[in-house]
Amino acid sequence: RTEIARIFADMEHFDGQDVTVCGWTRTIRDMKNFGFIELNDGSCFKSIQVVFEEGSLENYKEIAKQNVGAALIVQGKVVLTPQAKQPLEIKAASIQVEGPSAPEYPLQKKRHGVEFLRTVAHLRPRTNLFSAAFRVRSVAAFSIHEFFQNRGFVYVHTPIITASDCEGAGEMFRVTTLDPENAPRLENGQIDYSQDFFGKPASLTVSGQLNAENFAMAFGNVYTFGPTFRAENSNTQRHAAEFWMIEPEMAFCDLAGDMDVAEDMIKYVIRTVLERCPQEMDFFNSFVDKGLLERLQHVASADFGRVTYTEAVEILKQHNDKFDFKVEWGTDLQTEHERFLTEQVYKRPVFVTDYPKEIKAFYMRLNDDGKTVAATDCLVPGIGEIIGGSQREERLDVLEARIQELGMNPQDYWWYLDLRRYGSCKHAGFGLGFERMVMYLTGISNIRDVLPHPRTVGSADF
Ligand code: 4AD
Ligand code: MG
After folding, report:
1. Atom of ligand 1 nearest to the CA of 241
2. What is the C-alpha separation between 438 and 445, in angstroms, rounded?
3. Which residues lie below 8 Å from residue 387, measured CB to CB, with a gap of 6+?
4. Shortest CA distance to 50 belongs to which of 31, 37, 32?
5. Per-residue pLDDT tens for 170-204?
6. pLDDT band of 233, cuts 50, 70, 90
7. Considering only CA atoms, which of 56, 213, 26 is closest in space to residue 128?
8. Does ligand 1 come within 6 angstroms of the Cβ of 258?
């Protein structure tokens, strides 16, 4: 079989050639003694037009009554059609029905809303919107590997099951083999996890960072790229219970260096996707978000803004009348504030740095003011936070004091503290939410529509 992508990529070569293509029917039109099929095999975004005629097909009647969604094997000649809307077509010599499609097939030629398409998540990859989204997702993922591999970063696989809560937010999914009804209990009635599979409570990871830090202290520059899980009860367009995160970790690197890498990475991914997915990106620009291409091209070449949390709060306070949640120094920035900063004030991506330590995780490096930590969030228009990162606390005494202060158990982090005992060094890293990056690249506004099989509060079908 010949992939349709190959035919479009080398039209002159295929002109007049006999080919066999296999794919699924997007549309079918019967004009009595001839007909047209738009066939899509997923090898590229575009479908190919197949012309079939009563005179040359012995099973013409069978083909003409096929429904949208049918799997077909088409054999025929490629003909260039420079005057027509599509650059070429296949004149079918034979068409074989590999798998017919029942008439109640939910995807018809009309445009369906994304809400409806979420109810048929097993079929939606066969629509233009989702074909483009998941194709861009694939190219973006590859380009992220390329970005880090080209710079000599080592790819580390960090565990999915863990006993530590990296972000300290208590939003972990418990992993257990105990049956809650018959689980062994402590005297106080709580489940006795010492008799569980791992001999202690274990959960799905919220971040690979702590493990990545172990490897950065041996390999210098590393990155992870894997699924992470959060039992956050937030039903928003930007939160999923299962999402993918890219987490580089760099030894001998400070916060400024961390932001430089983050900015370069985002620009690299944008440029790569614009270059390798022109049809998909044109589609998004026409049907999802007019102005997307222009905006991304601009972002790929302009500097990101950089502002401290304290400065950002001064700016935002002047607009408190516009916000549901009023800002003052010490409050965590909400999406409405993040979007205001990046959309109204900076009109481009911006890094906010040096947040109050109270609203950030335990591992972030304490600044000399004793109040703020060397953290950074990268905010982008349309979404808000896309990256969270920081320089890490490399001083054993300061880290131990912070762990005490937060009432965490230092024993749980003995190995993490060890890194500060044996050759500790300045280091930094960040986490890019991959789905939010894909949303940014495509203009798609709901995280459920960039995840192949989304898991969100109350929904884990398919
Ligand atoms: O800001 P977060 O919580 O940072 C960390 O987990 C750090 N350990 C990263 C690091 O420094 N290595 O999460 C990082 C990013 C966020 O900026 C956001 O893009 C994404 O992960 N994210 C989510 N994406 C989808 N659904 C959720 N529930 C998300 N929570 C965070
Ligand atoms: Mg964050």
Report:
1. 28
2. 10
3. 262, 266, 376, 377, 378, 430, 431, 432, 433
4. 37
5. 899 999 999 989 999 999 999 999 999 999 999 99
6. confident
7. 26
8. no
- Count CA within 13 A, CB hemisphere, residue 126: 22
The residue among 41, 42, 64 whose CA lies nearest residue 51 is 64
Q: Look at residue 162 and tell me whether its pLDDT is greater than 80.
A: yes
Comparing CA positions, the residue from 81, 82, 88, 90 lying closest to residue 10 is 88
User: How large is the average pLDDT for residues 235-263?
Assistant: 97
Q: What percent of the chain has pLDDT over 90?
A: 95
Separation between Cα atoms, residue 10 and residue 93, nearest integer Å: 21
Task: With beta carbons less than 8 A apart as the criterion, state whether 406 and 252 touch.
Answer: no
Are the beta carbons of 356 and 374 closer than 8 angstroms? no
Q: Which atom of ligand 1 is nearest to the CA of 432?
A: 15
> Which atom of ligand 1 sits closest to the CA of residue 434?
19
Give the ligand with the smallest distance to the CA of 230.
Answer: 1
Give, using CA atoms, the residue closest to atom 7 of ligand 1.
431
Pure H helices in 2-59 = 4-9, 11-14
389 lines ligand 1 (CB under 6 A): yes
pLDDT (tens digit per residue) in 383-404: 999 999 999 999 999 999 999 9
39 backbone dihedrals φ, ψ, rounded to 5°: -110, 135
Lookup: tokens for 308: 């401290």
**CA atoms within 13 A of residue 453's CA, in its CB half-sphere:** 6
Distances from the Cα of 178 to the Cα of 181, 183, 194, 404, angstroms: 9, 6, 11, 31
- Residue 145: name the closest of 452, 432, 455, 389 by CA: 432
Pairing of strands 18-30, 427-433: unpaired
Q: How far is the CA of 192 from the centre of ligand 1 (A)?
A: 31
* DSSP single-letter state for residue 83: T
Residue type, 13: H
Q: Is the pTM of this model over 0.90?
A: yes
